[in-house]
Design a protein that fits this description.
This protein has about 230 residues and is an alpha/beta fold. The chain has 2 domains: about 140 residues, Rossmann fold (3-Layer(aba) Sandwich); about 60 residues, DNA polymerase, domain 1 (Orthogonal Bundle), CATH 1.10.150. It is about 40% helix and about 15% strand. Helix 8 links the parallel strand 6 and strand 7. Helix 1 crosses helix 4 and helix 3 crosses helix 4. The radius of gyration is 17 Å and the shape is globular. It starts with 7 loop residues before the first strand and ends in an 11-residue tail after the last helix.
């Protein structure tokens, strides 16, 4: 039997398991418009997906007051949890991949820039909540790329960084893993491209979620140089 090198697999949500980029971008632009601000380009709005909401808005609104950032974040939240018609759904093979990894004995968790309300809604809608032994959201602790979400999950589940793999679609996921001393694996169907992810020392960049179980069966964790280049 192949030695299981990783014990804990921590997934990002948006852009990794959930194809939600179009909906998030639409809500960001609508939130800006509600507050009388020029909406960011779709590219700029997509680039900050993965960060906590306030951190994301601060990047899109450099130099503005905290009050304005809070107002735009609240407007975004109203659209995302309310009337935005743009659909979202799981990436192909997401549910099946999680089921296989669960059956193979991995501990599965989520570390996301979503709010707790948003993540719980997504878990209920997709029926995937039972697959995860623990979750962390950006409104409960520090936002990515700060390591705290990942550190808290490892501490809660009693798994060392060397046995932990962060799986995500942005450089923020890769940086969080590096900052926590864990390894990172990228998927290429999300927000940031392959070159950007590999530059942040992702062990690999996979085209689709079903490729994760065979990759785990044949690859060792952790390179020593894990900083973004």
């Amino acid at each position: 039997m192949t030695e299981q090198r990783f014990e804990l697999l921590v997934f990002d949500w948006d852009g990794t398991l959930m194809d939600s980029q179009a909906r998030i971008v639409a809500c960001i632009r609508a939130g800006f418009a509600d507050c009388g601000l020029e909406p960011p380009t779709r590219e700029a709005a997509a680039d900050i997906i993965g960060l906590g909401l306030n951190d994301a808005m601060a990047r899109l609104l450099p130099g503005v007051s905290q009050g304005q950032i809070t107002a735009v974040a609240a407007a975004y939240r109203r659209h995302f949890l309310g009337d935005e018609p743009t659909p979202e759904g799981l990436f192909p093979g997401a549910a099946e991949t999680l089921s296989r990894l669960d059956a193979e004995g991995y501990l599965l968790a989520v570390a996301t820039g979503k709010s707790r309300v948003g993540l719980n809604r997504s878990l209920d809608q997709t029926g995937l909540g039972h697959r995860f032994v623990a979750t962390r959201c950006a409104d409960e602790t520090f936002s990515k790329p700060h390591p705290q979400m990942l550190v808290e999950l490892m501490d809660e589940l009693g798994v060392a960084p060397r046995h932990t793999l962060m799986i995500g679609d942005t450089e923020y996921d890769m940086q969080m893993a590096a900052n926590a001393g864990a390894a990172a694996l990228a998927v290429c169907h999300g927000v940031h491209d392959r070159e950007r992810l590999l530059a942040c020392a992702a062990l690999d960049c996979l085209e689709a979620l079903p490729a994760i179980p065979p990759w785990l069966a044949t690859h060792a964790p952790a390179t020593k140089d894990r900083a973004c280049r």
